Amino acid sequence: MRDATLYRRVFRQARPYWPHVLGVFVLGLLASPIALLTPVPLKIVVDSVLGTRPLPPVLRALVPASVGSSAAATLAVAIALLLAVTALGQVQSLATTLLRTSIGERLVLDFRSLLVQQVQRLSLSYHDSRGTADSVYRIQYDAPAIQNILVDGAIPFVSAAIAVVTMWIVTAELDRQLARCSSSPACTARACAANRAR
User: Fold this and answer.
1) Number of structural domains, the chain?
2) For 134-145, what is each residue's pLDDT tens digit?
3) Whole-angstrom distance, CA of residue 26 vs CA of residue 169
4) Distances in whole angstroms, Cα of residue 35 to Cα of each of 60, 77, 85, 104, 110
5) Which of 3, 30, 48, 76 has the CA that lies 20 to 30 A from 10?
6) What's phi and psi for 116, nearest 5 deg?
């Protein structure tokens, strides 16, 4: 059986779970923005508590005006923001793990049920010639491959590819020269530094 045919059969078997797969995919995409929020509290501490810069405009709109004038209040906001970002990251990770495990186990259960039905349709002469261990091995150990291919392989690959492309686009918007250097294998770190210093 060719690989393309095999993958088509795997995706056809997973068709009832596409809304759940889409949910895992969306949850995986949320990991990048949450990770980008992690250094923001440290920036607030360095710039607004230890330094003299005002709070970022988004935070100024959300907190009372008296917070920006007090270093202790600004530090409390930074700590609260750090706790909120950490909690958000943990909730995202927990939801992703629960949904991936649920989909994976259901896929394996459905696939094993299908294999058992197929094995029951085989003739006794087939079992006499191949032995029952062959069928049991396929049901027990080969069936989880559908989970490995779809849930543990395809979804993280697509999510990571989109995250890399998105990071490159953001980098290009911030600094086109840096984006060009990061996408060119011939461009070394020294060449990037020299180009940026000009």
Assistant:
1) 1
2) 778 778 888 888
3) 19
4) 22, 19, 8, 26, 35
5) 30
6) -60, -40
Q: Which amino acid is at 68?
A: G
Q: Which amino acid makes up residue 96?
A: T
Cα–Cα–Cα angle for 126, 129, 135, rounded to 5 degrees: 60
Torsion sign over Cα 42, 45, 46, 48: positive
Whichever domain contains 146, its CATH number is: 1.20.1560.10
C-beta contacts of 81-88 below 8 A and 24+ residues apart: 81/40, 81/41, 81/44, 82/41, 82/42, 85/34, 85/37, 85/38, 85/40, 85/41, 86/38, 88/34, 88/37
pLDDT digit string, tens, across residues 155-195: 888 888 887 887 778 777 766 776 666 555 555 555 555 55
Q: Which amino acid is it at 109?
A: L
The DSSP 8-state label assigned to residue 11 in this structure reads H
Q: What DSSP assignment string belongs to 141-187? A: IITTHHHHHIIIIIHHHHHHHHHHHHHHHHHHHH-HHHHHHHH-TT-
Residue type for 37, please? Answer: L
pLDDT at 49: 82
- Record the tokens describing residue 172, joined without a space: 């290009």
Q: Mean pLDDT across the chain, nearest whole number?
A: 80
Q: Write the CA distances from 84 to 27, 41, 45, 78, integer angstroms.
A: 17, 10, 16, 10
Q: Which domain holds residue 161?
A: 3-197
Q: What is the pTM of this model?
A: 0.68
